[in-house]
């Protein structure tokens, strides 16, 4: 009788019943949540988890570097948590290819065949902004594809690729494209007002818009950066802008070149557009622009400027 009862008690303590007893002693609410990715899927193994000690690859290291240069510290983790290289920075790459192709066309295949293209070839181009042809409205934007020489095209391409590709990886092509084109248009309109008798070539308006937007972010988020790195960024921007402005002034006032004089005012128009519209776009990472009052303020101011420039060119411009 004692044997039967002992055997029955052992049967009652099966693995299932013992595991149920253990589960009853565990407070589920106090346990750590299961590791999941950003789409809510559970990580399969320890190697799949982001904190498993796995060394980051080349793409991950590149994205970490981009986040340090383009974003304040409190936004880097959000960027790295959802970043990918798809879509790639299409806008800046396509714009750069287009500008290089137009330069090669005028430098190699046109009759003058010289690498300094600031000559009759580009003056007759349907892309160059010329004050006497300002009724052809596309010239206010298409001038960005025509450049005056090797140093002109190389400088613009280097700046917009080195700065534009990281910006587009973070903010994507729409934002970068809007800022770039806003700088191009602001540059030509500002030139038509403040230097109305000068022609215009080059993508400096768009390049300076990218520089202006990035510069304002570096200033505003200076305390969230490593101080030395923040100072380095600002000094590099100031040196590049100062050097380029110096060459622009020289080409406009000191260089004795035949033909029309090339305006420098597009640099000012581009950098102002960048420090306003560009700053709003580039500082609104992971935010809805339509709910940002700074966005609407900049848009309204830009529209007023465009309307004023259009009316000025129709009724008040001293250009022929």
UniProtKB/TrEMBL annotation:
One of its GO terms (biological process) is proteolysis. It catalyses: Cleaves type-1 transmembrane domains using a catalytic dyad composed of serine and histidine that are contributed by different transmembrane domains. GO terms for cellular component: membrane. The keyword Membrane applies. Keywords: Hydrolase, Membrane, Protease, Serine protease, Transmembrane, Transmembrane helix. It comes from the Eukaryota. It is found in: Membrane. InterPro entries: Peptidase_S54_rhomboid_dom, Peptidase_S54_rhomboid_met, Rhomboid_IM_Serine_Proteases. GO terms for molecular function: serine-type endopeptidase activity. Residues 28-57 are annotated as: Disordered. The keyword Protease applies. Its EC number is 3.4.21.105. Residues 135-283 form the Peptidase S54 rhomboid domain. The chain crosses the membrane at residues 90-108, 140-165, 177-194, 201-220, 226-250, 262-282, 294-316. Pfam families: Rhomboid. Involved in regulated intramembrane proteolysis and the subsequent release of functional polypeptides from their membrane anchors. Known substrate: EFNB3. Belongs to the peptidase S54 family. This is Rhomboid-related protein 2. It comes from Solea senegalensis (Senegalese sole).
């Amino acid at each position: 009788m004692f044997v039967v009862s002992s055997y029955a008690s052992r049967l009652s303590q099966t693995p299932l019943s013992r595991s149920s007893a253990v589960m009853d002693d565990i407070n589920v609410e106090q346990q750590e949540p299961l590791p999941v990715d950003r789409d809510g899927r559970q990580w399969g193994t320890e190697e799949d988890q982001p904190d498993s000690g796995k060394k980051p690859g080349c793409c991950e290291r590149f994205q970490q570097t981009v986040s340090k240069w383009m974003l304040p510290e409190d936004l880097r983790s959000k960027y790295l948590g959802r970043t990918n290289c798809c879509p790639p920075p299409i806008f800046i790459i396509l714009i750069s290819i287009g500008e290089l192709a137009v330069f090669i066309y005028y430098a190699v295949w046109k009759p003058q065949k010289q690498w300094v293209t600031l000559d009759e070839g580009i003056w007759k181009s349907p892309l160059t902004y010329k004050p006497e042809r300002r009724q052809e409205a596309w010239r206010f934007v298409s001038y960005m594809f025509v450049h005056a020489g090797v140093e002109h095209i190389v400088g613009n391409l280097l700046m917009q690729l080195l700065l534009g590709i990281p910006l587009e990886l973070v903010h994507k092509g729409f934002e970068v494209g809007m800022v770039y084109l806003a700088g191009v248009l602001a540059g030509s309109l500002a030139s038509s007002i403040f230097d109305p008798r000068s022609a215009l070539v080059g993508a400096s308006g768009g390049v300076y818009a990218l520089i202006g937007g990035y510069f304002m972010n570096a200033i505003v988020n200076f305390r969230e950066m490593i101080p030395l790195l923040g100072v380095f960024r600002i000094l590099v921007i100031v040196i590049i802008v100062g050097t380029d402005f110096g060459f622009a002034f020289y080409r406009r006032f000191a260089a004795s070149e035949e033909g029309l004089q090339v305006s420098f005012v597009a640099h000012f128009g581009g950098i102002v557009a960048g420090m306003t519209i560009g700053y709003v776009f580039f500082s609104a990472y992971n935010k809805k622009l339509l709910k940002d009052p700074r966005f609407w303020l900049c848009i309204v101011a830009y529209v007023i400027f465009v309307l004023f420039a259009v009316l000025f060119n129709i009724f008040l411009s001293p250009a022929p």
